[in-house]
Design goal:
CATH topology of one domain: Metallo-beta-lactamase, Chain A
Number of strands: 47
Strand content: 25-35%
Oligomer: single chain
Number of helices: 21
Structural class: alpha+beta
């Protein structure tokens, strides 16, 4: 059970007179009617569902109204792997029905995935430009993969698009397909008519792998998946490198954030991603992570980053500048040693159809090497050298894989895109003992037992360096890390850091100990450094707090007894600050007002109101805590006007009690009840005004968030901004509920 499993809660197949619809576990709907087979919606990895189905992988897809599932943060147009399967395995083109406005984004996505960039500017990525050792000609190398019978392949060799407008029809495979409003689709065949509706995938739920509370090693690797994009029995390859207790994601598979939540892994431990290349089995989870919690630092080259942006900007409805603002790009210098999270890395371009990065890293005297997707075959290197595709230095640099690393992850698969297993089995036995296979199906090994497939799951974390006891000289670094990540102190001036180091104290608490007791007076403020604490009210667990969360502020700010009991759910490491020191520390800052607002919102039970909203419910406790510091309660009477159509938006509204009537002069009315979130966000290069009026339908209460204060929240959580703003701008009556 090392990797855990996804709970495939899907509806039953529905079959009527030869017409059958089957919800796919990973999302989308398979429609069958005699010899007509089509897939409605293309989520990442759904090819793994259809590969083991009776009909196999269809070569006809129907695109839903949206190309992107905004709630799950993933593409609905992942046609890349169905394209590969249909062309290379079945020898046929992939067909898809889409609306005219969807064709260009789909073309751009597939062109980038299959062919990569049309031009290269690699000189900027190497310390000595073209004169750098092993400088590659990636355009020539890509051409090696895209030639058939002496000519270069084009996208038209792979796909056959069929465009159709709403309320219009196309005839395909003896079946008339009509696109209807509201994501409905009509199928007509031999005088019979059937209709279906596309429904987005519910948020996937992962089962736990049974491991106890996880403590990251000083240096190690947790494998999220070791399979390839067509492996129906394994999760797609990706892993976390742990460095000094912090995580660095490498090509996370789709739904990695949900996988982490199921294991109580705080996302704030993993804020860095290495993106090696832009094939769907490597970048789908990267986009999803960017769209979910917080800001991430994306470590890759300019070439790969720009390809990623070109591929996905149209799906999200953003321009390149807007998409780049969703993450912090950390450009890599190829061939040079550089630091990420305190470890030393060296990157190189592998031999693959599109620009792809491999790397090695060293930390605390141990080393790890990752091949990523590549063809490693010295004989092929020689052939490409003779053809003038590889220079002598490039040929030698490809040969010089760091086989001496303490741990090696190497891919294996079908050449010429991947490395033949027989190449790896000829390596010295002592190298094979240190090597794990990724991007591979376990059945490829057959009787081969010397090389292992990388083990998945937290319980099977590969440790190169155990967690080390913190030296006294390193404690200030740990305290500064907590100060940096605690959302309460996000805007704390840098000059306050030294004061924080002087007043903060590290303490250890054993599992089961009661830290504060409801009803008693207290004089300490707490920050969680390691472990979990439970917050109890009247004996009932209401919240679980983890690293970087804080508690104990309410009694200090409100000068009142403790509002809840807090117990250690695990062994704990806490940071404590005395009451008087804490009050002095936050004096002359905005923190007293923020803390008072947070405390009042906790007393007002704002938490359940946020959970009642579909867009706010997925937010982490950390993110909800940020909103607690922004939202302000406002009571209203029946008939009171909150805002009028044509007015400038100043706030976003969240209904806590009662209801609000949204009124349009052309569309009528809509009633927004508890948990409804409504209002308008500013848009780039456009003056935005309210398109509806909002009038209280009954006495009640809303929480308002001033747009001026929301900007800071969305700057730290850009994916949340994209998700909520898209919902609210889709329609005058758009209400996120």
């Amino acid at each position: 059970m090392g990797n855990g499993s996804i709970n495939k809660e899907v509806g039953p197949s529905i079959k009527v007179s030869g017409f059958q619809t089957t919800p796919l576990p990973r999302g989308g709907l398979l429609v069958q009617w005699d010899d007509f087979v089509a897939q409605l919606g293309a989520y990442p990895e759904t090819i793994k569902d259809t590969l083991k189905g009776e009909t196999g992988v269809p070569n006809l897809f129907i695109q839903p109204e949206s190309l992107f599932d905004i709630h799950n943060g993933i593409s609905l147009a992942e046609l890349e792997f169905p394209l590969y399967y249909n062309y290379y395995v079945k020898g046929r083109k992939l067909r898809f029905i889409c609306r005219p406005e969807q064709s260009r984004p789909i073309f751009r996505l597939l062109k980038e995935a299959v062919f990569g960039p049309s031009s290269f500017h690699l000189e900027r990525e190497f310390a000595r430009g073209k004169h750098s050792y092993g400088f590659p000609d990636l355009k020539a190398e890509a051409g090696f993969y895209k030639k058939v019978d002496g000519r270069l392949l084009k996208l038209g060799d792979f796909i056959e698009p069929i465009t159709c407008r709403i309320n219009e029809s196309v005839e395909v495979d003896n079946t008339k397909v009509t696109l209807l409003p509201n994501d409905r689709y009509r199928f007509e065949r031999e005088g019979e008519i059937k209709e279906v509706q596309f429904k987005p995938l519910p948020t996937p739920k992962f089962s736990h792998d049974g491991s106890s509370q996880f403590k990251p090693p000083e240096f190690g690797i947790t494998v999220l998946g070791a399979g390839h994009g067509f492996d129906v029995n394994s999760r797609t390859s990706g892993f976390i490198i742990w460095i000094g207790g912090r995580g660095l994601l490498v090509d996370p598979p789709a739904h990695t954030t949900q996988w982490m939540k199921a294991r109580n892994l705080d996302s704030r431990l993993v804020e860095d991603i290495i993106l090696t290349h832009c094939h769907a089995d490597h970048d789908s989870g990267t986009l999803q992570k960017i769209m979910e919690e917080g800001r991430v630092r994306l470590h890759t080259t300019a070439t790969v980053m720009e390809s990623f942006v070109r591929k996905y900007r149209s799906l999200l409805g953003l321009d390149s500048e807007e998409l780049v603002k969703l993450f912090d790009f950390q450009p890599l210098l190829v061939g040079s040693k550089l630091s990420i999270l305190g470890a030393r890395f060296r990157f190189w371009y592998t031999l693959h159809p599109i620009p792809t990065l491999g790397f090695e890293t060293e930390h605390k005297g141990k080393s790890f090497a990752y091949s990523c997707d590549t063809l490693y075959d010295p004989d092929v290197f020689d052939q490409l050298f003779e053809q003038g595709i590889l220079s002598e230095e490039r040929r030698q640099s490809l040969r010089d894989f760091p086989w001496d690393a303490d741990v090696i992850f190497h891919e294996a698969g079908m050449p010429p895109i991947h490395t033949p297993l027989k190449i790896l089995t000829k390596l010295p036995e002592e190298v094979q003992k240190r090597m794990y296979l990724t991007h591979v199906s376990a059945d490829i090994l057959g009787e081969e037992r010397r090389i292992k497939v990388a083990p998945t799951g937290l319980a099977n974390t590969i440790t190169l360096q155990e967690e080390q006891s913190l030296k006294e000289s390193e404690q200030p670094l740990k305290l500064l890390d907590i100060l940096l990540h605690a959302e309460l102190f996000a805007d704390c001036p840098i000059e306050k850091s030294l004061e924080f180091l002087n007043i903060a104290r590290m303490v250890e608490i054993k599992k089961g100990e009661e830290i504060i007791t409801q009803g008693e007076w207290g004089d300490l403020f707490f920050l969680v450094s390691q472990g979990e604490v439970g917050v109890f009210k009247e004996g009932e667990l209401v919240r679980t707090l983890r690293r970087y969360d804080y508690f104990g502020e309410m009694a200090i700010v409100l000068d009142a007894p403790r509002h809840a009991t807090v117990k250690a759910m695990t062994d704990l490491e806490l940071v404590t600050i005395d009451r008087s020191d804490f009050i002095k520390f936050i004096a002359n800052t905005e923190l007293p007002g923020i803390l008072h607002r947070v405390a009042q919102n906790k007393l007002n039970d704002l938490w359940p109101v946020m959970k009642a909203n579909r867009s706010l419910n997925p937010l982490s406790p950390f993110q909800r805590g940020q909103l607690l510091s922004i939202l302000e309660p406002r009571d209203f009477k029946s008939g009171e006007v909150l805002f009028t159509a044509g007015g400038l938006p100043l706030d976003i509204y969240l209904v806590a009690q009662g209801s609000v009537r949204l009124i349009s002069s052309t569309r009528g009315e809509f009633i927004a009840g508890r948990g409804a979130l409504f209002g308008r966000f500013p848009e780039k290069d456009r003056l935005v005004t309210h398109e509806v009026s909002a009038v209280a339908a009954a006495d009640g209460q809303v929480f308002t968030a001033p747009l001026s204060k929301l900007r800071s929240f969305f700057r730290r959580n850009p994916g949340t901004f994209v998700r909520i703003s898209r919902i609210l701008r889709q329609d005058p009556f758009s209400v996120s509920t």
